[in-house]
Design a protein that fits this description.
- The complex is a heterodimer of chains A (467) and B (248).
- Chain A is an alpha/beta fold.
- Chain A has 2 domains: 2-282, no CATH class; 387-467, no CATH class.
- Helices cover 23% and strands 36% of the residues of chain A.
- Chain A has helices at residues 2-17, 19-22, 28-44, 60-64, 80-83, 122-128, 130-136, 147-155, 388-395, 401-417, 423-437, and strands spanning 93-99, 102-103, 110-112, 118-121, 160-164, 173-180, 186-188, 191-196, 201-210, 216-226, 231-239, 244-254, 259-268, 271-280, 286-295, 300-309, 315-324, 329-338, 345-355, 361-370, 375-384.
- In chain A, helix 3 runs antiparallel to helix 8 (147-155) and helix 9 (388-395) packs across helix 10 (401-417).
- In chain B, the strands form 3 sheets. Chain B has a 6-stranded mixed β-sheet with strand order 6-9-10-3-11-12, with helices on both faces. Chain B has a 4-stranded antiparallel β-sheet with strand order 2-1-4-5, with helices on one face.
- Chain B has a single domain (2-247), classed as 3-Layer(aba) Sandwich (Rossmann fold).
- Chain B is α/β, with parallel strands linked by helices.
- The chains are: A alpha/beta (467), B alpha/beta (248).
- The interface between A and B is medium-sized, with 31 and 38 residues.
């Protein structure tokens, strides 16, 4: 394909021309990783539908567009107050922002708290804490299987770095907001590295938002190392314009008795791909991997979930639900791998979809690969319509068809929302989902978590505590 | 209140109701009896507005309006209530919110503001007492995990909340033990007034020992073959439906 070659040529040329800038913060080992990854990218290329795991997600239109790449941040600090203010009642977060792919607070690139927690720019962390970074960087991510991951490793200069020492519980929810706000189409590749010490605890909210209607292409890798007993709640919220393409690859490595809950909530976006890899590597660890996608128009969301049970006595639970309207399409590919010695594994996986019309489409592929003999595993996938019998029942009580459908769609989505354990965040996401289902959710000029108008309409007031 | 004239109904080309006439006035309780498969539930479904039925002939006039031209929810907003033979489970929608939404839609239709929380709670409490339904059931998802008896009581509970003008109870007695039957009947009797009417559809005479009908109609092969007072129900109980088949 000529068009694919164009972006490939462009990133190849730019890489060669800008090496000095790309390598500027790198310890030598990481420089080598980049070079290896770049060669790997040249072999692998951008993924195409010829690959099994990309069969239903066609990147050709994304790769046809012309993008600019920034090898340096814009000068000076970004006035984030201009972009948004925090207005969620009862939800105090520590906000860290990426602005056009660069850590936004240039004058304070890394904060070290008294309890030893380090939060800030990944680029700066490579300079200030090279040993810490090297220990985990690119250890968890699999960059040799997919061209986009390889390209990210070659290119990524910045992202978020978080280190939580043993026994520390971060006192506030950390909210990372990716803001794209440029007058041209951007190709952004960030790398986030999160290291959680023994028995540490953190909640992370990761927002991908558009702040204008420009096309963009984001290819992000997030690596998370969870040491023994670590506890992470990781909520990903995606509310992007319809010309945005987002590939988020998250890799979690879990040691003994660690506990992960991760959510991918896709409210809007052109093309969204969530690759989620969780490796249960220590006994007694648990992973909840949840997702909700609400699609319309020509939107496309692809969730690829890989849960690996490498050792005995671990549990995992996957629940992904989607509502698809218009010409939208969805993909769910859930792969549970139970390795040979991983006895007493409990692994469950469910994917449920509602198609609101006959043009919408979903590909669901639950997949169990089990090499141990004493395990409990289940998987299930459904694709259906709104239940007409339930619709008639609700309407027969005087509720309009519109509200009856909303009630049923919301009830369907609520199963995922109910798993969110932080009440103010749950309420906020609950509001966003209702707005989305009513078609009222704009791609805000503010972060999804900071929309000003809290949901109040009585016609559809659902008391979550009573469900 | 309700006038049905020469009603013919088909499902997928098969005629189920073949020329049915019925007149129900305010304050009356009508019982429609008959063997299985004679069109009793079809009649209830057509009045409530379920999809999938073709009315090929006849008309239904409800409070001077053409009922068949109204949407399901519009019928409900005008006071029609169907007690389902098989109440539907709706996971994720709590009874509380279901009822609040239903009442608020009813109020909106009448130009009223949403129901104040305290008033809603009082109404819920009264309706619960009437059908002896526990608090915890109304906090759960609609009908989800309810026993057969609880589902039927829940239908009467909803009827008590919505206070319909014309209630059609489709086989509300099926699957109920005698205690649950009494509770359901007591609920229906308590809701009876000179301004509303009830059509009780049943296979057995048993329910009619507790809900005293003003009229009993026997439906057979899509038509009402006989109408009478309460004594007709007793006669059916004694003789069964066989003799009707011969008459028809």
């Amino acid at each position: 394909m000529i068009t694919e070659a164009t972006l490939k040529n462009k990133v190849t040329d730019l890489y060669k021309e800008n090496k000095d800038r790309i390598f500027s913060n790198d310890p030598p080992e990481i420089r080598k990783l980049r070079e290896d990854a770049f060669n790997r990218f040249l072999q692998l290329d951008f993924p195409t539908t010829r690959l099994e795991s990309w069969k239903n997600t066609d990147l050709r239109k994304v790769l046809e567009k012309d993008y600019s790449i920034m090898f340096e941040p814009e000068n000076g600090n970004v006035d984030l107050d201009r972009i948004f203010r925090c207005e969620v009642p009862d939800f105090d977060t520590h906000i860290i922002s990426m602005y056009n792919g660069w850590y936004a607070y240039r004058d304070k690139p890394l904060i070290k708290l008294q309890n030893g927690t380090i939060i800030g720019s990944f680029g700066q962390a490579m300079k200030e804490y090279p040993d810490l970074v090297k220990k985990h960087y690119n250890q968890i991510a699999k960059t040799d299987i997919n061209g986009l991951n390889a390209l990210n490793t070659a290119y990524a200069q910045d992202g978020i770095f978080i280190y939580v020492p043993d026994g520390v519980e971060t006192y506030k929810t950390i909210q990372m907001v990716n803001i794209l706000d440029r007058d041209d189409n951007l190709f952004v590749q960030n790398r986030n590295l999160v290291i959680l010490g023994k028995n540490s605890k953190m909640t992370l909210v990761h927002c991908d938002d558009s702040h204008n209607q420009h096309a963009s292409f984001t290819n992000t890798i997030t690596e998370v190392f969870m040491d023994e007993g670590a506890d992470l709640k990781y909520y990903k919220l995606q509310n992007l314009n319809n010309d945005t393409s987002l590939v988020n690859s998250a890799f979690f490595h879990q040691e003994k008795d660690s506990n992960l809950a991760t959510f991918a909530i896709s409210l809007n976006g052109g093309l969204i791909r969530n690759d989620i890899h969780a490796r249960l590597n220590g006994e007694g660890s648990h992973a909840d991997v949840m997702g909700l996608y609400l699609l319309d128009k020509d939107q496309h969301v692809d969730n690829q979930v890989h849960v690996t049970h490498a050792v005995p006595n671990c549990t995992s639970n996957e629940l992904f639900k989607g509502i698809l309207d218009d010409h939208s399409s969805g993909v769910f590919n859930g792969h549970i791998l139970v390795e040979k010695d991983a006895q007493h594994t409990n692994a469950f996986q469910t994917n449920r979809n509602i198609l609101l019309n006959d043009k919408a489409m979903v590909h669901s592929k639950p997949f169990l690969e089990i090499y141990a003999d004493d395990v409990k595993c289940s998987h299930g996938a459904t694709v259906g319509q709104i239940d007409n019998e339930a619709l008639f029942y609700i309407k027969s009580r005087g509720i309009s068809e519109y509200n009856a459908k909303l009630l049923l769609m919301y009830a369907f989505a609520a199963e995922v929302i109910n798993e969110i354990s932080i009440q103010p965040l749950k309420d906020r996401i609950d509001d966003l989902v209702k707005k989305r289902l009513r078609g009222e959710l704009a791609v805000c000029d503010q972060c999804v978590l900071h929309c000003k108008n809290q949901e109040q309409a009585y016609e559809f007031k659902i008391d979550m505590s009573k469900i | 209140m309700l006038t049905i004239k020469n009603l013919h109904v088909e499902i997928e080309g098969k005629e189920i109701i073949r020329g049915l006439d019925l007149e129900v006035k305010a304050g009356e309780v009508h019982a429609i009896m008959g063997p299985n498969g004679t069109g009793k539930s079809t009649l209830a479904a057509v009045i409530a507005g379920r999809e999938g039925y073709d009315v090929t002939e006849g008309e239904i006039i409800y409070n001077n309006k053409e009922l068949l031209e109204m949407e399901t929810e519009e019928r409900a907003l005008n006071g029609i209530f169907l007690g389902f033979q098989y109440p539907v489970e709706i996971p994720g929608v709590s009874m509380n919110n279901f009822m609040r939404t239903a009442l608020n839609e009813q109020r909106k239709y009448r130009g009223l503001d949403p129901i104040p929380a305290s008033e809603f709670l009082t109404q819920m409490e009264e309706a619960r007492k009437l059908v002896e339904i526990q608090d915890k059931l109304t906090n759960r998802s609609v009908n989800e995990g309810f026993s057969g008896g609880e589902k039927k009581r829940n239908e009467i509970f909803q009827m008590a909340m919505i206070k319909p003008t014309l209630a059609i109870l489709d086989e509300t007695d099926s699957g109920l033990d005698i205690d649950a039957l009494k509770v359901v009947a007591r609920g229906v009797n308590a809701l009876k007034s000179k301004d509303n009417a009830t059509i009780v559809i049943t296979h057995y005479q048993r329910l009619l020992e507790y809900i005293i009908p003003d009229f009993v109609h026997v439906l057979f092969d899509g038509k009402i073959v006989r109408s009478g007072g309460r004594e007709l129900a007793l006669e059916l109980e004694e003789k069964g439906y066989e003799w009707l088949k011969q008459e028809a």
